[in-house]
Amino acid sequence: MVVSIELSDAEVDRLFHALADATRRDILRRSVAGDLSVSRLAADYPMSFAAVQKHVAVLEQVGLVTKIRNGRELLVRSDPDTLRRARLALDQLEEAWRGRVERMAAVLDDE
Amino acid sequence: MQITVDKDLANATLTVETRFAHPIEKVWELFANPRKLERWWGPPTHPATVVRHELEPGGAVHYFMTDPEGNRYHGIWRVISVEAPARIVADDFFADEEGAPVEGMPTSHFEYTFEAVDGGTVLRCVSRYDTVEELQKTLDMGVEEGLRGAMSQMEPLLAEG
Fold this sequence. Notes:
The complex is a heterodimer of chains A (111) and B (161).
Chain A: H1 2-6, H2 9-19, H3 22-30, E1 36-37, H4 38-42, H5 49-61, E2 65-70, E3 73-78, H6 80-109
Antiparallel strand pairs in A: 1-3, 2-3
Helix pairs in contact in A: 3-5
Chain B: E1 2-8, E2 13-20, H1 24-32, H2 34-40, E3 48-53, E4 60-66, E5 72-83, E6 87-95, E7 108-117, E8 120-129, H3 132-141, H4 143-160
Antiparallel strand pairs in B: 1-2, 2-8, 3-4, 4-5, 5-6, 6-7, 7-8
Helix pairs in contact in B: 1-2
C-alpha cells in the first residue's frame, strides 16, 4: 500500500527496467558510499566511459542514484530509499507465500 | 520444514522452494483435491472456496476468498499444463463471480513442480508477473495483507501436529 502511494505504476516499471542489468546493479552497489566518480566507476568495466555514463543516466532517471558535485568531480551516490520501496512489493508477496507453505504443512500434518 | 525464497526484483518473479516430510502423492493432493486446496490457498481471515476444479490442460480452477465482512473475491486459474504428480503450469487471474477474468487486473503466471526426495517432497513454486506494473497492482488489492494476518492463527494448527 505504501509503495502504491509513493510510486506510480509507470515509475515502478522504469525502476525494474533500470535494475534488470547486471552492470547497473553493480554500479548501484558501488555507489552506496557516494565517493566514486563516473570515471572511477568506468575504470572497472570492460566498456567505454560513454557506455558506463549511459548506465548511470538510466539509474539517475529513476532516482536510484544522484550525482553530487565535489569540486571538479561529479560523484555518484545511490538512493537506498527508492530501492527499499521497490523491494517492498516483492517482500509482501514473499510473506503471502510463506503463509501458504505453512498452511500446506499444517494440512499435511493433520492427516 | 525448510523454506527457501528467491526474490527476483528485476523480473518480478518470486520463487519459493520447500521440502515436506510427506510423500509426493500427498503433496500433490494439496492441489489436486479441491477440499484440500481451499484449506491453504487463503488465510483463515480470507478462506478460499473452490467452486470449479478442472486440473487438466485448458481447464479452469475457479475459487473465491471471503473476507470477514462476507465480501467475495474471485480468482481463476487457467490451466496450461499438468503432469501428475510432478508439475502444474497455469495463469492466475482476478475474476468476476462467473469466473471470467477481469480486464486490467494483475495476472500471475505460475509453475509448481513436485519432486520426490528421500521419502519427502520438494515443492517449487515460481510466480511471475509480466511487468512490474502488474506486480505493483497486487499491493493495491490488499490480498497480501489478509494473507499475512494468517500467520498468527497458524500456530495452533501446527502445534496440533
